[in-house]
From TrEMBL:
Record-annotated NADPH-dependent FMN reductase-like domain positions: 7-143
SUPFAM superfamilies (UniProt xref): Flavoproteins (SSF52218)
Name of the protein this chain belongs to: NADPH-dependent FMN reductase
Transmembrane segment boundaries: none
EC number of the protein: 1.-.-.-
Enzyme class, spelled out: oxidoreductase
UniProt-recorded Gene Ontology molecular function terms: oxidoreductase activity
Pfam family, one: FMN_red
UniProt KW Oxidoreductase keyword: yes
Length: 187
């Protein structure tokens, strides 16, 4: 088994005054304590991914970074009970590069904490042969959730979920990396 694995953390919101980077920074700060993964942060607001999926822009660069990852975390808000359109474009840009690699969610929004967006994303990633982690990191009422230092006002349940989700991700990422090296996933 390899000592470390490569984890791509994808920030899925691109709005000008989005809170997504604050959520992502919080996650990345707390991630270190729970994993040996080397993190590659992919912020969709910094990438030009053409909506016609015909390549160009940053499509090849994004696909290569997905290819290099052994696992993923998607940081997503909830918009009208779904997930952001640019996130779907990003998901649809690579194809086989996602396969047989685990993925966890950090979601946020109003009272639901983005749960409905996550449940929709699970069905999308199932089509791409991506196992999704059972435990979600949900941040409800996100605009009141953080203090001035960018830490959660009520960290208990959310940080416990983070530890649990990353533990699941570590197991799947290590296990599937070894399995892919042993036998290419060609199903
Ligand atoms: C168009 C739009 C629709 C939204 N719909 C929902 C929703 O269905 N459920 C929810 O919990 N929050 C909803 N919200 C609140 C967002 O989750 C919240 O504004 C969050 O900050 C958005 O993430 P962002 O700032 O990173 O873009 C919506 C926000 C926008 C802009």
């Amino acid at each position: 088994m390899r000592d470390s694995y490569s984890l791509a953390v994808i920030t899925g919101s691109v709005r000008a005054d989005r809170i997504g980077p604050r959520v992502t920074r919080w996650f990345l700060r707390h991630l270190d304590r729970h994993t040996d993964a080397v993190v590659d942060h992919l912020d969709l607001a910094e990438l030009d991914l053409p909506g016609d999926l015909a390549g160009g822009g940053d499509a090849e660069r994004f696909t290569k970074r997905v290819d290099q990852a052994d696992g993923f975390v998607v940081v997503t808000p909830e918009y009208n009970h779904g997930y952001p359109g640019p996130l779907k474009t990003a998901i649809d840009t690579p194809y086989e590069q996602w396969r047989a690699k685990p993925l966890g969610f950090v979601s946020y929004g109003g009272a639901s904490g983005g749960l409905r967006a996550v449940e929709q994303l699970r069905t999308v990633f199932a089509e791409l042969h991506v196992p999704t982690m059972r435990t979600n990191v949900l941040i409800p009422n996100v605009h009141d959730a953080f203090d001035d230092d960018g830490e959660l006002r009520d960290p208990g349940p959310v940080e416990a979920a983070l530890a649990e989700m990353v533990r699941q991700l570590n197991w799947w990422a290590h296990t599937l990396a070894a399995a892919r090296a042993d036998r290419p996933y060609d199903c």
